[in-house]
Amino acid sequence: MAVDLHKAYIHTALKFCFGPDVLSNLELRSLLQLLAEHAEEIAAEAGDYVMQEGIDAEYLFIPTSGVMLIERASSSNFRHVYAFVFPGNLFGISSESRYPYSVKALAPVSLLRIKRTHLDQLMRTDPAVARLFYEIATRIISFLISNLYMLGQKTAVQRVCYFLLDFQRMGNFGNELFVPMTRKDIACYLGISEETVSRAFTRLKQLQLIDVKSQYFIELLDVSRLEQCCQERDIPVSN
Amino acid sequence: MAVDLHKAYIHTALKFCFGPDVLSNLELRSLLQLLAEHAEEIAAEAGDYVMQEGIDAEYLFIPTSGVMLIERASSSNFRHVYAFVFPGNLFGISSESRYPYSVKALAPVSLLRIKRTHLDQLMRTDPAVARLFYEIATRIISFLISNLYMLGQKTAVQRVCYFLLDFQRMGNFGNELFVPMTRKDIACYLGISEETVSRAFTRLKQLQLIDVKSQYFIELLDVSRLEQCCQERDIPVSN
DNA sequence: CGAGCTGTTGAATGCGCTCAAAGCCCGTGG
DNA sequence: CCACGGGCTTTGAGCGCATTCAACAGCTCG
Lengths: 239, 239
Hints:
Two copies of one chain form a homodimer.
Chain A: H1 8-18, H2 29-38, E1 40-44, E2 49-51, E3 59-65, E4 68-73, E5 79-85, E6 102-105, E7 109-115, H3 116-125, H4 127-153, H5 156-171, E8 176-178, H6 183-190, H7 194-206, E9 210-214, E10 217-220, H8 223-231
Antiparallel strand pairs in A: 1-7, 2-6, 3-7, 4-5, 4-6, 8-10, 9-10
The structure holds a DNA duplex.
């Protein structure tokens, strides 16, 4: 049950999640100790569910490698993708006693998980830890707000640009993106249909903003024009 | 500068914000003391800005009466409304050093404001307070997630239903809603045009789900069918 | 009473959706 | 090794919802 927090990929994820000086920050030593002693390392294959909506929210998760997606199946037979998850994007935060969403691995992934009861207890006694989780929640709020704006105000092509740029930033790739999710996943995330996603990719390819190397590999050819495309009210090139 | 937290409308707002037993909860006495000693009561008229995006994020706000809206003007000449704010809906949480949005009063409002530096300091020493704010942030996350779903997956009429029902819940009215914002505000919130909002109201009126008494008064005639309308993939009545 | 703003309604356009077919990739089995 | 099949993606055609543009109604205020 002991986890070596100094392993490179775990350390990287922790830095992203808790701040760059996480391992040397004395204020957080109790948190690190808790993680080292009580966190578990788990792994999942592409397609596996790391957690299922409706189940008792027992754990908090910190992804350490791979990509996942957070989805919820609404009451009827429809689903919505809330976010894609990268190493360091802590999840499992919820005011409910059950998970309000599921998390699926899109590629082989590894995660740390820690019991919420342990963490709750620590938060009760250690203000630095409680404050840290407040800050993490605040970051999540910023992320959700920018997505709200995207869903409320942007066209299909703009949403796809937004997705690509966001994916690049989060994934720490260069301009060659490995995009392990299906077009349908992207569509559910962006609030458009999968055909529209496909058409948007084709359009961006025609405009030479991207190159669709294969189903799962996309190269960004002109990041600054992609950014323009995101922000402008009108799509820069109409043909 | 001393605030009487026992005043009825303040007490109500605090209960909504911090939990029903806020005034008797011993864990929160330091927070209450801080509020009583260092919070300021401020007021604003309809149309006034309570805070402006881009300004130093000096305060956290707790609305105690009235209705406000949270908006952001994007880089170009467009704006987005993130939320409507009711008594008890704390705002000003942000990881940035400047406010990332503005807050406008839609009716005469009153609020408590407290310096973030004071609160930060308290969070550093009092785990119960830090944990409380973590929980508040968590609630905000739940709210934003449900809005994401709404913007991503719902039709115009469904969004308007969602808005009305949400407004009823938050505002603590009965079925007679006082809706002090313009159609344009609602439109920016729901991610649709103002004409579409107007048409949706007309449609819901024809279906006898609501009655538009006047510009600012709407009566909900059939809450359960409104809820149906929100949830179903297809709008129940097509004509 | 007119000016200005907000809201409603109508007509026409268009973006994105649905339905459908064809292409592509890849694994499976003959 | 190749044929087949299934899943995913792409492309096309047609439709519909929501938008845009425009006119008009209703209200407030000077």
